[in-house]
Amino acid sequence: MTLHHVNINAEESSIPTVSFALYLVARLSPYEWRDLHPCKRTRAELENQFTFFNSLWFLIGNIMQQGTDLNPTAPSTRMISCLWSFFTLIIVSSYTANLAAFLTVQRMQTPIENAEDLASQTKIAYGFQRGGSTENFFRESKIATYERMWNYISANQADVTAASSTEGINRVLKGNYAFLMESTTSEYNIMRNCELTSIGGLLDSKGYGFGVPQNSPYRDILSDTILKLQDEGVIHKYYNKWWKEAANLKCDQEDKRKDIAAELGFANIGGIFVILAGGLILSTIVAAVEFSIKIRNRKGRQISIREEMQRYFRFAIFNVSASKRRASIFIKDVPLLSPNDDDHDRDRDLDQIRHQ
């Protein structure tokens, strides 16, 4: 996931919020009410194309980089359209860039995942400590992969083997070298150096124990005590204490990847939401200014500006299901459009308007 859940919730909420804002501003702005059939002179009605669902469809089409047949004409609705396009551009671009980085990090895997991969390549040298148990294991192994590794190491023994585990680890830190060693020692060093890591599973499984003389009476006592401590979790407790807690170092590869391609938090792209909210408020103010200019410049006004505003806002807010209104909305005593009105009533109202 490349987006923080807070951003996802904010983006999901922004779609219906901006849709409602566009719908409301379109109803408030007089310039979004237009005659969609100008050739029919007998119809005294205006229609608004931005219903709530049309507004929602308009925004979704913008997100998908696809246009719709809805074209805002008022400055206020065009402002919302441009603002939403800018918002979508920033969100999509940020998500795409972060997703590319995330997928790149996901593919940043070690080219060698197991002993077979190590034996099949020649770029990275590998070896072990001379004279140790690991050398004995490869010398005596009958597995084809390990035999091939032993042949390589024995042929280049002076160059790939180390006198001690410390020398081998130092060669690993310099690069292009893999050091084969006991898992316990390997794990101990990895917990103390984040530049080290282990790959693949165990090549062999061996346990540790105390050496005592043959037929020693202490053999059974030590074995029983070790099994008891293991069952009670004491050994695991001291393992955590001296291996993990004493290291006081966290080397989580997943954490490293998260640092490289972290989720986009609200702190990263929260500014665009602030711009979006501010733009919606500004567009509402612009719609109010448009309405004010329209009614002040209206000729033949028969009612006061205050009454006109109340009449218009009452229709825009409370008649939410109506996508049409009469062109005579500003004329006194002329009712608003009703869905039950027929063409004859509309023509009659138009004649009344012409005679006034």
TrEMBL record:
Q: How does it sit in the membrane?
A: Multi-pass membrane protein
Q: What is this protein called?
A: Ionotropic glutamate receptor C-terminal domain-containing protein
Q: Which Pfam families match?
A: Lig_chan (PF00060)
**Where would you find this protein in the cell?**
Postsynaptic cell membrane
State the taxonomy lineage: Eukaryota, Metazoa, Spiralia, Gnathifera, Rotifera
- Specify which residues bind L-glutamate according to the UniProt entry for this protein: 133-134, 182
The principal location of this protein is: membrane
InterPro entries the UniProt entry points to: Iono_Glu_rcpt_met (IPR001508), Ionotropic_Glu_rcpt (IPR015683), Iontro_rcpt_C (IPR001320)
Domain of life here? Answer: Eukaryota
Name the site position(s) for Crucial to convey clamshell closure to channel opening: 112
Q: Name one GO molecular function term.
A: signaling receptor activity
- Kindly list the cysteine pairs connected by disulfide bridges: 194-251
Q: Which chain regions cross the lipid bilayer?
A: 83-105, 266-289
